Amino acid sequence: MSCRRVADDYPESLEALPLWRRLNVRFHAAYCPACKAFIRQIDETAKVLGESKEELSDEESHAMVARLRKRQS
Amino acid sequence: MTISDDELATLVKEHHVALVRLARTFVQSQAIAEEVAQETWVAVIDGADGFEGRSSMKTWLFRILVNRARTRGKKEGREIAFDITEDETHPDEERFTLGFWTAPPKTWVDEAIDAKRAVAIVRREVDGLPEAQRAVVLMRDVEGLDAKEVCNVLGIEETHQRVLLHRGRARLRSLIEKELGK
Predict the structure, then answer these.
(1) Does B173 sit within 8 Å of A11, measured CB to CB?
(2) Euclidean distance between CA atoms B60 and B35, whole angstroms
(3) Nearest chain A alpha carbon to B142
(4) What pTM did the predictor assign?
């Protein structure tokens, strides 16, 4: 298995892959430091995305609810 | 089911920013995206009785938004294709020779990323992803919907969802690497 294939095949989680491809990726990543780093960084990217979620403040959300209720009536 | 102001405020607080960002994928301006998000909330208030609990409240909410944003986008002549283009190159394409890394990923500081900087980078760069990738990344990774929920909201196949998510993450990984390497 090539590194390019690992970079293509490492999707949201290895569990989504058929067993043989999953084992191929794991085997390759076990001895290839570059792919190991790539996989770790893809996982880190997903984690950072989760931490990037933005929310309104309590004041902003209550003000919006007031506007929505007014708009509805 | 009647939705109380407090319940609505909790939903608005948690999801309004994401709804606007997702709507922006389908429509041409930020102002229209904001309008579509607000119309979605009004539809939620009016239609809370129609929520049957077969999907999560979050999935229901995002489905209403996507339907409205798509309709609005079509009126503007914008239609987002969720097809997979096979000719799209990998973001790291030039770093492989004969299928192997010739310029391997640079190690991020201490094997972990400078979290604040990375969050700032992804907040900025997600909106620059191709529309279909952006929609999937926003719902999966930022909002935490699972694969089935995203397929349900966007009406796409599981395989497409997975490829779009992976391509989006791979692009962002590459951008974080470039930025952190500066």
Answers:
(1) no
(2) 18
(3) A50
(4) 0.88
